[in-house]
Design brief:
about 90 residues; mainly beta; Jelly Rolls; four-stranded antiparallel sheet; 8 strands; globular; disordered C terminus
Length: about 90
């Protein structure tokens, strides 16, 4: 699933998303997760794999295009497990 976010948009992805990979295809976004002391900045070409169970929030610091990809073994309410990586 691909999403386009305008600068300043916030996306609350929820929690318990282990195995989900967030790929920044273009632009820049800031990612934070409850229970993770580090915040993450994703720029075009960077990705983040969710390992924790905490609430995951994404903030577009610049207009960005992100792709959400779930591992086949992951049960994720947002993304079907059969979603192909494009």
């Amino acid at each position: 699933m691909e999403l386009l976010l305008d600068r300043g948009e916030v996306l609350n992805l929820g929690q318990k998303l282990q195995g989900l990979t967030i790929i920044c295809r273009a632009g820049t976004c800031w990612l934070t997760q409850t229970g993770d002391a580090r915040d993450h900045i994703l720029r075009g070409g960077h990705q983040f794999q969710v390992r924790g169970k905490g609430q995951l929030v994404l903030y577009a610091t610049d207009r960005c295009r992100i792709q959400l990809v779930a591992e086949k073994a992951t049960l994720c309410p947002l993304i079907p497990a059969t979603l192909p990586l494009q």
